[in-house]
Amino acid sequence: MRYKLVGNRVVKVDAREKALGSALYIDDIVLPGMLYGKILRSPYAHARIVHIDISKALKAPGVKAVVTAKDLPGKGGGLVGPFIKDEPIFAVDKVRYVGEPVAAVAATDLAAADAAASLIHVEYEELPALFDPVEAMREGAPLIHDNVKGYFAVFDARRGGNVCSHTTFFEGDVERGFQESHVIVEETLRTPMQYQAYIEPIGAIAQFDGAGRVTVWSNTQGIFVTQDRICESLKIPMSKIRVIAPKIGGGFGGKIETTVQPHCVALAQKTGGRPVKIVLPREEDISNTRPRHPAIMSWKMGLKKDGTILASQMSAIFDSGAYADDGPGVVAVGAITARGPYRIRNIRMDSYCVYTNKVKTGAMRGFGNTQTTYSRECMLDIAARAVGMDPLELRMKNAIEPGDKSVGGQTLHSVGFKESLTAASEGLGWNRPKETKYRGRGMAGINHISGLLTVGSVVRLNEDGTFTIQCGAMDIGQGSDTVLVQIVAEEMGVPMDDVRLASGDTDATPYTWATTANRITYTGGNSVLLAARDVKRQMRDLAAQMLDTENLETKDKKIFAKGNPDKALTYHDLGKVSVWVKGGPLIGKSNFMVEEPTLDPRCAIGHPFGTPFSAWIFGTQAAEVEVDPDTGEVRVLKLVAAHDVGQAINVDGVEGQIEGGVVQGLGYGLCEAVLFDKGRITNPNLTDYKIPPAADVPEITPIIIETHDQTGPFGAKGIGEAALMGAAPAVANAIFDAIGVRVTELPMTAEKVLKAIQEKRAREAKAS
Amino acid sequence: MKRRDITLYVNEEKYELNVPVNKTLLQVLREDLGLMDTKYGCGLGECGACSVLLDGDKAILACLALAATMNGKHITTVRGLERDGELHPVQQAFVETGAIQCGFCTPGMIIKGVSMLARNPHPDETEIKHGLEGNLCRCTGYVKIIKAIQRAGELLDSRSSG
């Protein structure tokens, strides 16, 4: 089916204002009388707070407010957390990581706030700290939270000690699968803490009006999540909290949960109506955005001689840092997706989320699946070599197809995995002779969820026949505003200029959960499409009444009696009549959420997925690398990324997601890691935490595979997170292909690759 | 803090300013002149979001330049590239090529593109990649930014010949 707008390359609705520099981001907003906030943070990884003295800070020049936990309701405020409510806004009694907020100051300028914050005297008593999740799991380890079972939890996944969740998914009989296998492969792989590193740091402004209502401006991925966390922590009813999001300079998961917003509100409560702004310096941003969980993943896979995978087992330990945050969800998604896009009857996937005294980790593009995809795809290559099969052939042999099920029993309808294997390997030239000796090729298969929870939206017919969408889904740069406008314009048969999207204001848009889980195109797209159909039906009913016929046609913004275009009402006419005569305007509305259960509870212990998944997305990324055997340097020459997106809505947008995701994935594979010395981050800036610059980017070929999901808007599914997952394992497998060494810990720096080469040479020398 | 009187021309407007000697050009643009189109990403010269043009076509980092040293200089920010409602060819190319995602690095990238093309009207891919050194983007993977700068070179050609 050809569409007018869907499936084309369209200019993004906000591209022009961004090119002109007129798009406003949080730091560009300045309000009259605005104060500047500074958060005082813990210098210790684990310490008891003996005493806090704010008296000097209160008297410092320019200071208008100082806040600590004692100023919050109940001397500490409500605890927050999306799964386990374990985190205070300001530390209560003890600190659990270097960088934890202890107090905050608002002053007339930033220098005054900085100076005053340094005058707050905090007396600490250091406690033994834990930096390694394996140590934290040991019997008798010091407790980071005295009683993890005492916290309110959305679901309880075998909490205890320093373990905040332990989720298991199992199907079939994994032990029997191993017994029946001809070949068993085992390996442990490790991944680092990856920082979202959006170019725009996190910030917020809060201001109270005379009626006790607070308005919060912030670059959040979920205005309603922000509203909820402020409500919970500061005990302010939602009816008194308005959250507005300006343009957002990237998120990648780091801007979902609150970071500075409740702190801003707590300060603004004490300033007599003056607004308070906090924008994090880069160094503070790194320690507050909840980077990606480091993980240690131990795998065992069993195969028949012909390459059929009979059993797959993983036990993974995820480092949650000081608080649970999204951790229980992250590790569960990591476990449920760990089987991968393969038919494997017998599986057991365990994942533990463990507290340590490091910055709290949380959601980042891929949400647990990035870690498990890396390790599983390495395992598939190890397995392929063990049975003497080409890695492509092994994947193809075990690949899932439409009608197969995901872990938990959900039947998968649109599955373009095999197509992606073919497209990526052909695009790379999988079987082409290699040009030089130390070149290698590798690939990785990907599966992920797309869509989750609810999006509400309204489509309104304006008086002049144009349309306004109200939808709270946040465009964080991925282009969803454009996609939502495109979908409504397509459905209404109007140009995109006739559709305006209002978003980013809790007072002005229906509820939606955040920009996460590859869900805005799929869930948000379905929501606005249904709302558009609703208003369309109402327009048709009004036209039928006015034209006195049910036999109607619609074309060129007109509804007319079939075969009689002269007897017509324009959208403009209908807009006018609906407002002035019919007590309108005509408003279409919808809430979209998949509600049918997608997980058989008998195959899981401690899982958070009371809410079902929607569609699943698939892909393959394949890379060619060249390794320098003398230095260990890895040069990625080409990367082909083939992704099943159901149906591309904006082709430029899909390609942009793939290209950007691939480069983040290459960063994950080759250079990115947040580093620590006793809990203190040693590379808290963009020089020492290196994200890939343009010069490091190889030739990238995005390939779009369209499988037209029967539940997606115009057949569409998501792409954002899947795009990141394949690059690191594809490169790891390519390095092995090039030089016969496997680095089992990301990032695969030249030092690690060289060390592996030297060890291999030493082994070979010994053997000969 | 010691202060200095300077005359600064920003997007062809003249400003007589009295600035503390430790204030950066970025702070003066954003805080004193209210020109928010130049972005603060790190304040340390790491990300390039604050790139502006000095005296026509030389890209500099506004977060590392002290305003007090800019007396008599002409600064162009991304908003100063537009002419009578018409986008500059580099802006136009970024819009048309899908080179803009979150948009936060975009002003700096466009400034860098203008500066690059002034020196080399037809850079190849490798030259553009190296020319973008010092400007980070986390969304696009640079692919469409590189295409946009190449496309802008073509647009500039057709504009000068037409």
How would you describe this structure to a colleague?
The complex is a heterodimer of chains A (768) and B (162). Chain A has 768 residues and is of the alpha+beta class. Chain A has a seven-stranded mixed β-sheet. In chain A, strands 8-13-14-15-7-24 form a six-stranded mixed β-sheet, with helices on both faces. In chain A, β27 (676-677) and β28 (680-681) form a beta hairpin. In chain A, α6 crosses α7 and α9 (327-336) runs parallel beside α10 (369-387). The model of chain A has no long low-confidence stretch (mean pLDDT 96). Chain B folds into two domains: 3-80, Beta-grasp domain (Ubiquitin-like (UB roll)), CATH 3.10.20.30; 89-161, DNA polymerase, domain 1. Chain B is 35% helix and 17% strand. The mean pLDDT of chain B is 97. In chain B, β3 and β4 (58-61) form a beta hairpin. Classes of the chains: A alpha+beta (768), B alpha+beta (162).
Within the CATH hierarchy, at the fold level, what is the topology of the largest domain in chain B? Ubiquitin-like (UB roll)
Average per-residue pLDDT of chain A, rounded, comes to: 96
Number of domains of chain B: 2
Full CATH superfamily name of the largest domain in chain A = Aldehyde oxidase/xanthine dehydrogenase, molybdopterin binding domain
Biggest beta-sheet profile of chain B? 5 strands, mixed
Which radius of gyration of chain A do the C-alpha atoms yield?
A: 27 Å
Mean pLDDT across every amino acid position of chain B: 97
Give the oligomeric state.
Answer: heterodimer
- Give the largest interface pair and sizes: A-B, 54 and 52 residues
Report how far apart the termini of chain B are: 52 Å
Distance from N terminus to C terminus of chain A (CA atoms, Å) equals: 64 Å
Q: Which term fits the overall shape of chain A? A: globular
Name of the level-1 CATH class of the largest domain in chain B:
Alpha Beta
Shape of chain B: globular
Q: In percent terms, what proportion of residues of chain A is strand?
A: 25-35%
The spatial strand order of the largest sheet of chain B comes to 2-1-5-3-4
Total number of beta strands of chain A: 29
CATH level-four homologous superfamily name of the largest domain in chain B = Beta-grasp domain
